[in-house]
Structure formats: C-alpha cells, structure tokens
Fold this protein.
Amino acid sequence: MPQLIVNNITLRFSGLTALSDVSFEVTKNEILAIIGPNGAGKTCLLNCISGFYKPQEGNMSFDGMDLITTPIYERTMKGIARTFQNIELFNGLTALDNIMAARHAHFKTGVIRSGIHFGKARDEEIYHREIVEQIIDFLEIKPVRKKIVGSLPYGMRKRVELGRALAVEPKLLLLDEPMSGMNVEEKEDMARFVIDIFEDKQIPIILIEHDMGVVMDISDRVMVLEFGKKIAEGIPDEIVKNEKVINAYLGQ
Amino acid sequence: MRRESGVFDVNYVQDMKIFRTKYHVIGMIALIAFFLSLPFFKNQFWLTFINSTAVTIIALQGLNILSGYCGQISIGHTAFMAVGAYSSTILAAQFGLPLWFCMIIGALCAGLIGILFGLPSLRVKGYYLALTTIAAQFIIIYLIKTPFPEITGGAIALQVPEFTLGGFKFETETHFYYLIITLLIMTTFFSKGVLRSKFGRAFIAIRDNDIAAEAMGINLYKYKLLAFFLGCFYAGFAGALWAAYARVISPDDFTLMNSIWQMGMLIIGGLGSTLGPFFGALFIKLLNEICLVAGPFISSIIPQIGAQISASLVEMSFGVAIILFLAFEPRGIAHRWEILKDSYRLWPFSY
C-alpha cells in the first residue's frame, strides 16, 4: 500500500511563509479534500508534493521515495500524477496526442527504432494507443480526440487534463480544483469521473475544491488550511461543525 | 481535419498511416518517378537548383526538429553545417578515410557540439537562448578561420576529396542528384518517424508547456539536449553533403546571414510541420532565382536604379516575404497547404 507522509513542512518565499509546519498522512485509499480560503497555501502544498516547490524544512515521502530531492519527472514515473488549477495542456497537440504524451514514461523504444517506425516501435505505439482510447472512452471525449486542444471549450480541456493524469497510471492522484469554473451539470460529470477513478483504480486522491457540496459528497476526509497552517482535519461531518473552520472559511 | 469521403479506419495502423488512400500512394510514386526521371531532360540549371535546395532542406529539417518542434530557437544553424562540412573534409583529407564514412562522423561531431551549445537551453529560453546560439556561429567560424589555418584552410577555401561509394565515383551533377535525392527521402522518412513517436510528442510538449511536460514524466534536460543533438546532426550531415557536392568549402559558405536565411525559410515554410522545410526552401530559392533574372531587367527599364539591383533585390524581397508571412500567415505555406487539402476534399459538394 503506497503511502504519502508529509512531516512538518515549511515553505517560504523570501519572508512570506506560504506553508508553516504542515503535516498529514495518506495511508489508505481515500479521497482527501483540502479546503481553505484563497491564499491559504493549498496549491503550494500540491506543488511541494509534485516537486515544483521545495520546502525549506520538514520531510515528505511517498512509497519509500524521498519527496524533497527527487526531480519532478521521476515522481511522475513513480506514480504521482496531477492536474493544474489553470489548465496546462500542450496546446499544439490533439486531445489524443496530449494523453499519448503522458504515456511517455511507459514507452521503451529508442530514437533510431522510432525513426524507422516499423515493427516494434509501431506495435508499442498501437499498444499504448489502445490504453489511451480506453481513457478517452471513459472520459467521454471521443468526438474531440482529433481536435487541437487549444480550440476546445473549457470543460473539455479540463477532462483532457484529467485524462492526461490518468495516462500516467498514477498511484496517487492530485487534482487542483478540477471543478472550478464549471456549471452544475459539468461538476456532476466531473465528480462522477473522480468517484469512478477512485473505485476503479483503488488509489488515493488528493483534491482541492471550493465547492463545499462536492467536498461533502465525495471526500472521505477533509483537511483545512488557513494562512499556511493546518487548522482542522477530519471527516466531512465533523469539519462543518468545527468552530475554527466556520470562522476561517465556511462562515456562519 | 477532414477525411476523404468513404475512407474509414478499422484499426490503429490505418489511422496512423501517412498515405491514406491509393491516390496518395500513386501521387507520391508519380512525384518520385518525376524527380528520378529529371536528369534525362539534361537541364543543368534545374539539377543544380534541386541539388542545392535539397541539401538546404536536409539542414532545415534539423532546424525544424530543434526550433519548430522543440521550440529552442537557434540562429546558429549554419555553424553546425560548417562543423559537419569541415570535420568530414579534414578527416578524409588528413587520414585518407572514405568520404561517406567521414560524413557520418562529421554529422556526429556536429551533433555533439550541438549538445555543448545546447547546454544554455537548460537555463534560458526564448530570445536569450537565440542569443546564445548566435555565439555558436561566431565561435565556430572563428575556430575554423584563425587558430589552425594549415588544417582548416583558414579564411581561404578548402579542397574536398572526391566522393566515392563502393568504387563508384560521383563526378557529375546527375550522380550527385541521385545521391542527394535518395538521402533527402531517407532523412525525411527518419525525421517523420522520430517526430510522430514519443520523442516528437515530448518535443512538442516541451515547446508548448514545459512545466506540464515535466509533470508528465518528461526529463526536460535530456529531451532538450536530444533535440539539439538531432537538429545539429541533420545540419552537420547537410554540411558534409554540401562539401562533398561542392568539392570546395570556405567559411564564407556558413555565415550568420545564412543562418538567418534558414530561420526565415523555416518560418515561411511552416514551423513544426514535415512539409515546412520543403516549402520554405523551395519558396526562397525560387524567389532568389526570380530576383536574379528580374534584377537586370528592372535596371534596363529604369536605369536610374543602377546595375547592382539584383543583389539587393534578393535581400529586399526576402525581407518583404518575411514581413508578409508573419503578418498574414505566421504558420507558413504548410498551413495554407493543409487548408487547400481540406477544401478540395469537399469540392464540389460542401456538405
């Protein structure tokens, strides 16, 4: 069972303390929601786990891998996949190729074989194509798979991005506001995808989300951040009653 | 992208094909047959034109991998052609090795030196990287011109040994024509193969969004340097081929101006498309020839302009072409070609 352990991490940007002394664990298959007001450090925490920021103090590990020094791409190869708050797709590629690009770490052929593009290189391409088509099928983006993603509507791009994270074959999935900017119907679709992924793959999912309805419905556990500090952690029903959380984020 | 009516893919092999219908295949065979039969028309001008254009296309394919696909702008590309040309010539002349073998070694040398000058790309990108590649242009040409004139021939021309392959001597324009066309087909095939594999996708990922690329498991350093290696390998190979064909090389063949011309050709042809180098090189070379013919004609009509108009006309029309393309079609002729293909598929029934 892979486990993410975050121990007392502190992240500073020259004077500003973005995260101070945050620790938590994800040791079983669960959906952990991180909530908190804007600027609380939610995305910073995700960026620390996926390697874009390097905390000055504390330590983190995932599945025996040290998460302070390991380069970003190696974390992905070991199974930490993520989506971004503002969609970060490869805009010049089609939806299909975007997801294929995320299969990168699973390809084995070298440059010369790929250049000749026959036999093994082509078989490998087809093998991965089949996996990617399954993801496309699952996310219901079949009609747009040959379209350049730059031209797709927002909701579709969010789905392609989720598909790209799935193509990594994650052991831990980090979703940074997967439902931001969506209408109710799109949110329901996305929530269904998240639950389906969770049940199908049996992997822990860490989710940042502002929509409390979604958080209450799909998460097993909720962690609340305020000004870089963890102020509460527990099952959703406890969190809504927590005095500190009501004052900091939920309101009366 | 629209598809031909009535053509349906039933498996992924068909979906990945480059030539999708039998008409594509017939068209391609007809085109190759036309080019193979060209020497029988005994027109030296067109043979020379195609030879020099084809060598440029090979170099441009390298630049396309590097700048078009991987997004690492390079304005020192002809310097790597010079590395290929000089290292293959020097190896062949000093050690008496066969020239075809030296061409491959020369291309490898260019690739390795490309990696060296690609190292700044790990820290800088965009305009700053473009400036560091200009440094390659000056340093390499200086090293050819100054420190070892007895080996490199200095600023004067260097003779290139004869090109032979399995006892056959390549002497005439026609011999080289067949050699260059064959190599061009091979390099096109190889670059297309690399660019539609995981490497091509990784290059485009780095160009479009390097943060996300790294988060998707792509090692940025490795792939940027690989792009530099491949791009400069192509340049070096084109340079070595040019040396074998021209039989004489000098540092003046590989100036900064030529590098800028190559970048311009690629922009006009279309960055990041397989056909871009073909269209770009053909367009600029044809424009060049037209200007050389039109120049004397113009100065005979309007004598006040002076007799030297041809030379400046080439540069001027190149400048105008770049401005027009950047303003009206920044994705180059290749993109126009795609639009054309798309619309003829529907013609005459736009349903």
